[in-house]
């Protein structure tokens, strides 16, 4: 893990990868960060009804060199630690507390997004978009907001974009633009049936499929020619305000867009200036 991640969030999200005894140890890390830094592995083993060797195995599974390394990481984190930031929103919670939780999660999400971005994948996708005359983009639910953001960004630099919630229309667009288009499918789960159906249509007409999802090990990941993976690690924790994946998706699209922009920066900036002038003229 990187130094700027919230360590308690990180440990909490790793719980499912641990054994029963290791989960007990990791939960103690989360619940008692102040106490951890004064304990030995043997003492922690006794407190959690496990053993010193279990403590060491647990820290290794959490990607630390050892228990001492984990304690140092927690001690660095304690000055800004608020025990509530990784918990759920509660009844009648204060604005200040909600703010801290959401900002902490957003910071964590952006750090995790940076870790997940593959420069190799982004460069390949940029190359495919440059070759394409038309981009067809689809997302449903919150992912439709990301699709709209992508559409607005690339339209401003003169790229032809087709975005619609009408999947029948998009299927016909794929067939009629098959000589020079790419399909970008956006799905947090990577299991959206409509996106998968569009991907199959694209494959029939030899149209490249670019997927944006939380994992390559999804149905969309298996159908796509290229994948962008975003962070969704905090999504389940704040069920009432699940914005983490949306933030990560939007940031991933920004990285893709600005990587594309940088390939011919002066030309694209000139086009963006023209589109801005057109809007200002419209508003006069």
UniProtKB/TrEMBL annotation:
One protein family per Pfam: HTH_6
UniProt keyword annotation of Transcription present: yes
Keyword DNA-binding (UniProt): yes
Top-rank taxon, per record: Bacteria
GO molecular function annotations of the record: carbohydrate derivative binding; DNA binding; DNA-binding transcription factor activity
Record's keyword terms, sorted: DNA-binding, Transcription, Transcription regulation
Domain SIS: 125-266
A GO BP entry: carbohydrate derivative metabolic process
Domain HTH rpiR-type: 5-81
Protein name: Putative RpiR family transcriptional regulator
Gene (name only): ybbH_1
């Amino acid at each position: 893990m990187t130094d700027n991640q919230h360590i308690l969030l990180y440990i909490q999200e790793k719980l499912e990868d641990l054994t029963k005894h290791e989960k007990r140890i990791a939960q103690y890390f989360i619940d008692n960060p102040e106490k951890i830094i004064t304990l030995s592995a043997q003492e922690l083993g006794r407190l959690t009804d496990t053993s010193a060797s279990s403590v060491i195995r647990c820290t290794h599974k959490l990607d630390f060199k050892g228990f001492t390394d984990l304690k140092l990481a927690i001690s660095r984190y304690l000055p800004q630690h608020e025990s509530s930031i990784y918990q759920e929103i509660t009844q009648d919670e204060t604005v200040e507390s909600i703010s801290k939780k959401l900002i902490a999660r957003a910071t964590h999400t952006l750090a995790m997004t940076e870790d997940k971005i593959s420069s190799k994948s982004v460069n390949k996708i940029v190359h495919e978009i440059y070759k394409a005359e038309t981009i067809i983009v689809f997302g449903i639910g919150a992912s439709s907001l990301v699709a709209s953001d992508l559409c607005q960004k690339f339209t401003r630099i003169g790229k032809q974009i087709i975005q619609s919630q009408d999947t029948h229309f998009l299927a016909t667009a794929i067939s009629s633009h098959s000589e020079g288009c790419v399909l970008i499918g956006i799905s947090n789960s990577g299991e959206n049936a409509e996106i998968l159906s569009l991907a199959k249509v694209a494959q029939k007409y030899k149209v490249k499929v670019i997927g944006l999802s939380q994992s390559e090990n999804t149905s969309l990941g298996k159908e796509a020619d290229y994948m962008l993976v975003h962070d969704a690690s905090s999504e389940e924790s704040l069920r009432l305000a699940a914005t983490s994946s949306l933030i990560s998706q939007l940031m991933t699209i920004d990285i893709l867009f600005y990587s594309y922009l940088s390939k011919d920066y002066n030309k694209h900036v000139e086009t963006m200036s023209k589109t801005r002038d057109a809007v200002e003229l419209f508003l006069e």
